[in-house]
Design goal:
Layout: E1 6-7, H1 18-24, H2 26-29, H3 41-61, E2 68-71, H4 74-88, E3 95-99, H5 104-115, E4 119-123, H6 133-139, E5 144-148, H7 162-172, E6 175-179, E7 198-202, E8 213-217, H8 243-258, H9 260-281, E9 286-287, E10 303-309, H10 311-319, E11 323-324, H11 330-333, H12 340-344, E12 353-359, H13 366-380
Helix pairs in contact: 1-8, 3-8, 4-5, 9-13, 10-13
This protein binds pyridoxal-5'-phosphate (PLP).
Pyridoxal-5'-phosphate binds next to helix 4.
């Protein structure tokens, strides 16, 4: 790997924070028991770590410990929330409402359910990537089981009005699921204040380990499990618990919530510096999603997504030869298709367009952004 490469892909994943690693370490080497082994100290120590982590996470998002189910990450949490709610619903006709810029973990899950006879409404978003409350309210019918709208988007950083959506869902008696993957640790998030029934979380976007996440499930919200086996997690998600991962998830959320304001201001400053530089040297630039200079409250503080046209795109890619950024989102770029998120905000791509997503992180340095800006200036002026 190129050690000199500057990492600016923190919406795809983040490096592990040392504080998170230090919290996890004992659960690999010393306290390696199975949390389900209740006959010895190894198991009991592991179980205590899991339950302490559950309490920590619940307290940080305003829920109760028994409302946290550990999963392998947000993809699994999204699947469990949506399919689980549909399977548990006693309605004869079932309907889901979601929006066009959701992560594929939501959209593909809805598509599979649609093939099984569930009605799915996919709402459009405006050019800032925000869904309208009116469209959600209009779409709700007697058959609606749940509304699934993400807190913040992974490609263009758009922020949805989740408290208003939650209130609306409560008024109409339908479940509200939010994929909180990109919002947690970057935006204030509280399941009570936002009337959230189901929330998907993952550790690796907030300087925690990959392969661990959680689903928040409000006590009175009924979902069916997808994975059957030893009855772990109150029967909601069988499988031996990933104890170091769970400890890491709790620590990652704790650190991110504690440093939320500081991280947000720091990353936004660097993001804005990069944007100013791009605007100065790239005449064909289009900002995808809300312009952070005008509507910072509609965009994640650490995210920037731009499209350039013609030669400028190639020139910029050349200037950024030592920068790790994303062509759109990591998940979408694997398919090589035009991003569904960009299409939804009216950016249809095209042969002469180049789209770049930058995700600034807690560990991005000012010197790195200065050096990127110098390269852009040298190449483009
Ligand atoms: C909004 C969103 N949802 C879900 C996921 C999937 O998360 P995980 O990698 O934990 O399965 C991601 C990450 O790519 C994401 O950004």
């Amino acid at each position: 790997m190129q050690q000199s490469t500057i990492y600016l892909d923190n919406n795809a994943t983040t490096p592990l924070d040392e504080r998170v690693f230090n919290a996890m370490k004992p659960y690999f080497f010393e306290c390696y028991g199975n949390a389900a082994s209740n006959t010895h100290v190894f198991g009991m120590t592991a179980k205590k770590a899991v339950e302490d982590s559950r309490k920590t996470i619940a307290a940080l998002i305003g829920g109760k410990p028994e409302e946290i189910i550990f999963t392998s990450g947000a993809t699994e949490s999204d699947n469990l929330a949506i399919t689980g709610a549909i399977e548990a619903s006693t309605k004869t006709k079932k309907h889901i409402i979601t929006c066009a810029i959701e992560h594929k973990a939501v959209l593909d899950t809805c598509a599979v359910l649609e093939k099984k006879g569930v009605e799915v409404t996919i709402l459009p978003v405006n050019t800032d990537g925000v869904v309208s409350l009116e469209s959600i309210e209009k779409a709700i019918t007697d058959n609606t089981v749940l509304v699934s709208i993400m807190h913040a988007n992974n490609e263009i950083g758009s922020i949805q009005p989740i408290s208003d959506i939650g209130k609306l869902c409560k008024k109409h008696g339908v479940y509200f699921h939010t994929d909180a993957t990109q919002g947690i640790g970057k935006l204030p998030f509280n399941v009570e204040e936002s009337y959230v029934d189901l929330a998907s979380l993952t550790a690796h976007k907030i300087y925690g380990p990959k392969g661990i996440g959680a689903l928040y499930v409000r006590n009175d919200c009924k979902i069916s499990p997808l994975i059957h086996g030893g009855g772990h997690e109150s029967g909601m998600r069988s499988g031996t618990l990933n104890v170091p991962g769970i400890v890491g998830l709790a620590k990652a959320i704790e650190v991110s919530v504690e440093s939320l304001q500081e991280d947000a201001e720091y990353t936004a400053d660097l993001r804005n510096q990069l944007l100013e530089c791009l605007l100065k040297y790239c005449s064909t630039i289009r900002i995808n999603g809300a312009d952070p200079r005008i509507n910072p409250h509609l965009r994640l503080p650490n995210n920037l997504n731009v499209t350039l046209y013609g030669d400028e795109g190639e020139l910029l890619s050349g200037a950024l030869w030592n920068v790790a950024y994303s062509a759109s989102s990591a998940c979408t770029s694997a398919t090589g298709k035009q991003s569904h998120v960009l299409s939804a905000i009216g950016n249809m791509g095209g042969k002469d367009s180049t789209t770049l997503r930058f995700g600034i992180g807690r560990f991005t340095t000012k010197a790195e952004i200065n050096s990127i800006c110098d390269s852009i200036r040298d190449m483009m002026s």
